[in-house]
Structures are given as structure tokens and as C-alpha cells.
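sry for the spam today, last one i promise. C-alpha cells for design, 140 residues
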């Protein structure tokens, strides 16, 4: 009887480990490239602070503002961010890499990053970047 109990116990442990491995594989690791993702804005922070995406492939991004204030999502190189830090463009709705969201609004944008590298996304509304509204898209 003792041998049977040990066998059942080991079988249960093995089943739990296999299930855990399947869940981890399905969820993907930090370095796994995705073609669709959700970035939530909550408490003036980006909940998803880093994404890895493939180069040359359209990426669907669902931007979800869960805050009672507006935000923007601007992704690009240093020149793009330098231009937006001056605040000369109050609203963004024409360029896939520049999106404004009102309080509690959700928008979807599709972006293709042709060149590998790291691209920073920022909310440039006054004080938001300094508060920590920054993230990185790693293009591989």
C-alpha cells in the first residue's frame, strides 16, 4: 500500500509540473516576440513596460486608458520624443505611432517596425514622463 501511495503522489507532482510547463510556454517569456498586445494605462503608468516584437511584421496594439485623465502613447526614436516634448501637437489621431486617449478610452493601432532596435514609448503630457510613463518595444 505504501508503494501505491508514493506512486500516486509522484504522479500528481509530475502532472503539476507538466501543467506548469505548459502554462509558462503558452504565456511566453519576456523575450518572446508577439504580434498582438495590450498596453494598459493605470495610475499614470504603462502596465506593460516592455514588449518584444518581430521586425517587418504588423503589430496590433490595444491601448487601454483606465485612468480618469487623458494620456498619449508616442513611440519612436530620440528625434520623435524631442519634438513631442515641446507640446506643439495637442492631439494625435493620424499616425499609428502617435495616439491620444481620453479618460477611460480604448484604441487600437497597427504598427510595423521595419528596423530592429529598441523604441521607447512615452506619454508626453506635462509631468507624465517624469512620473514614469515610459516603456520599450524591442524589435528583433
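last one done:
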Amino acid at each position: 500500500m505504501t508503494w501505491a501511495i508514493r506512486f500516486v503522489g509522484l504522479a500528481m507532482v509530475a502532472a503539476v509540473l507538466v501543467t506548469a510547463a505548459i502554462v509558462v510556454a503558452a504565456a511566453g517569456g519576456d523575450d518572446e516576440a508577439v504580434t498582438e498586445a495590450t498596453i494598459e494605462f493605470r495610475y499614470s503608468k504603462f502596465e506593460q513596460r516592455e514588449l518584444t516584437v518581430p521586425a517587418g511584421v504588423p503589430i496590433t496594439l490595444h491601448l487601454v486608458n483606465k485612468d480618469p485623465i487623458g494620456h498619449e502613447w508616442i513611440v519612436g526614436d530620440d528625434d520623435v520624443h524631442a519634438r513631442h516634448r515641446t507640446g506643439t501637437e495637442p492631439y494625435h489621431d493620424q499616425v499609428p505611432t502617435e495616439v491620444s486617449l481620453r479618460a477611460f478610452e480604448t484604441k487600437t493601432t497597427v504598427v510595423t517596425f521595419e528596423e530592429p532596435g529598441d523604441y521607447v514609448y512615452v506619454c508626453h503630457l506635462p509631468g507624465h514622463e517624469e512620473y514614469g510613463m515610459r516603456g520599450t518595444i524591442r524589435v528583433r
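Residues 7-30 have pLDDT under 50 and may be disordered. ok im logging off now
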